[in-house]
Write a structure and sequence with these properties.
Layout: E1 2-5, H1 16-30, E2 35-38, H2 48-56, E3 58-66, E4 73-81, E5 85-89, H3 90-94, H4 103-108, H5 112-122, E6 128-132, H6 143-148, E7 152-154, E8 173-175, E9 186-190, H7 202-206, H8 217-235, H9 247-258, E10 262-265, H10 266-273, H11 276-281, E11 285-293, H12 302-312, E12 317-324, H13 328-335, E13 339-342, H14 350-355, H15 357-366
Parallel strand pairs: 1-2, 1-11, 5-6, 6-9, 9-10, 11-12, 12-13
Antiparallel strand pairs: 3-4, 4-5, 7-8
């Protein structure tokens, strides 16, 4: 049997590369004659930088930038491939893993670090820039990134606005950069289709997991709404209803508005870039992973993208996930998976499951009937 190992990271527990190693060792222990193809993947979230740089080759750089709140400085990596493409993973600068999320952190959250990384990337005279959007702690609509790129966000007194989500309520005017801010084409890689505003938008869908309290949600939503209204008035652009504009707390909205970025499915873009279909044709079955599988997985997460490709070649996909949120049989059927396995027992808490993820995964795979 020839196994194609295409794991996505289990966020907070295991990287895709680490999972691929665990899968390979376990399958060889179970089936010594197995042939293994290792192809760790990402969908625009955590692990995107390593996935693309491993596949495409090039150099990884590091730059100190503003973290997910203005008082934090972080060392964020970015890559320049051999084809002179720049790769930015948003979570490197403004990731949720860089802080303990609270109502205070999301109120002050800023995407400024992404604007600073973009400025660093532009020093390399790249032909294009790819930005993965997942795993962020921010909800500022990308306002901080815009400010770092030279856009003036001013309050009613004409003073620069403080960074953060809630300060957007004081926004009065936006002025574009005075200098010619030319840059190469930007492609943003997303695993969600949520718009900026509304019940399915950035705030009401994602802000709770970033620390927001229920009482805080209307204020965060009002801040983004006011930001979008000011953008519409001053820049004559409106991407607030565009599918995916709510990704990364609205960072996608800012990149589409201020940088003319094009939004694409992260998993499909990465599978194309890494020539994944060639690997599919050479395997008998595919093994993939995800930290959490739920209804949102159907709309562009890693497993969904892999399953779609596999169906074209009639190759079975076996998925191992940390947690299943929803009806497992319904999700397996909807994704057309050969099997779907939750590796952690229900009685384990999430921290315990993350702590023990390595051996839980190895045990589940070893006892699985492929």
């Amino acid at each position: 049997m020839k196994y194609l190992l295409a794991p996505n990271a289990m966020k907070g527990a295991l990287t895709a590369q680490k999972i691929a190693t665990i899968l390979s060792k376990t399958i060889r222990r179970k089936d010594p004659s197995a042939e293994i193809i290792m192809a760790p993947i990402a969908d625009g979230g955590n692990g995107t930088l390593e996935c693309l740089m491993d596949a495409l080759g090039g150099t990884i750089y590091e730059r100190e930038v503003t973290g997910p709140i203005p008082t934090i400085k972080v060392k964020a990596r970015y890559g320049i491939t051999r084809q002179n493409r720049a790769i930015i993973e948003s979570a490197e600068a403004i990731g949720l893993h860089l802080l303990t999320p609270t109502p205070e952190t999301i109120a002050a959250s800023t995407s400024r670090g992404i604007g600073e990384l973009l400025s660093a990337v532009m020093e390399h005279s790249c032909t294009e820039i790819w930005i993965g959007l997942g795993g962020t702690a921010t909800n500022d609509g990308g306002a901080g990134a815009g400010a770092a790129l030279g856009f003036s966000l001013l309050d009613q007194h004409g003073d620069p606005l403080r960074d953060g989500s809630i300060p957007l309520l004081q926004l009065n005017r936006i002025l574009p950069p005075t200098s010619n801010n030319q840059h190469c084409p930007i492609t943003i890689l997303s695993d969600v289709q949520n718009p900026l505003l509304g019940e399915s938008g950035a705030t009401y869908t994602f802000a709770r997991q970033k620390g927001a309290s229920d009482d805080q949600l209307p204020y965060l939503e009002s801040a983004l709404h006011h930001f979008a209204e000011t953008v519409r008035s001053d820049l004559q652009k409106d991407f607030s209803t565009a599918p995916g504009s709510g990704a990364a707390g609205g960072l996608a909205y800012e990149l589409m508005t201020f940088c003319n970025a094009t939004l694409v499915s992260g998993i499909d873009h990465i599978l194309d870039a890494t020539d994944f279909e060639t690997e599919i044709t050479e395997c008998d079955l595919i093994v993939t992973t995800e930290g959490m599988l739920d209804g949102q997985t159907l709309f562009g997460k890693g497993i969904a993208g892999i399953a779609r490709r596999a169906q074209q070649f009639q190759k079975p996909v076996h998925a191992f996930v940390g947690r299943i949120n929803g009806d497992a049989d319904e999700l397996r059927t909807a994704l057309q998976l050969a099997s779907l396995t939750q590796i952690s027992p229900e009685e384990l808490t999430t921290p315990e499951a993350m702590r023990d993820a390595s051996w839980l995964l190895a045990d589940a795979v070893f006892h699985h009937h492929f």
